[in-house]
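Handoff note, outgoing to incoming analyst
You'll be picking up this chain. Sequence as last confirmed:
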Amino acid sequence: MKHGKSLFNIVLCALLAALCCVATLVIQIPTPTGGFLNLGDAIVILGAFLLPPVYGALAAGVGSALADIFVGYAQYAPATFVIKAMMALAVWAVIWLSRRFAEKKYYFVFITAGGVLAEIIMVCGYFGYEALVLRYGWGAAASVVPNMVQGLVGIIAGTILIQLIKATKIKDKLS
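Most recent structure output, in case you need it:
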């Protein structure tokens, strides 16, 4: 049975990586800094909910990095892989803590808190990457507000997706 569960996680990881890439590519709202708003972070949060931590991190990192490459932002792909993987791990950790220590009625709050932590990682991660690696210096601050808006969109959409999955009990049927 363990091998069947591993295969299931691998397949779901690949599916969510593809979905993350597509969600990032399909809806793109340009920002003044040259980036764009998208729904990829919602899938990052969803993957952290549906998968064990390593698989969720891989789905988030690979799917998001591929999207960067496909839209011509390959210079961001290495940072995106690390940042999105860390985001998924942060969401997973907060959800894990909520399952261990909180009542079910507060689950929504923990999912949202996990999303907030993940988006803080995203905003700080991209600021640091742009400032230090891409050598934008303080010019990297121009991406902070658009990234915060991106984060807010991801938190709202991801939380809604998780609530829908919980309501339909799809995750229970898949397990």
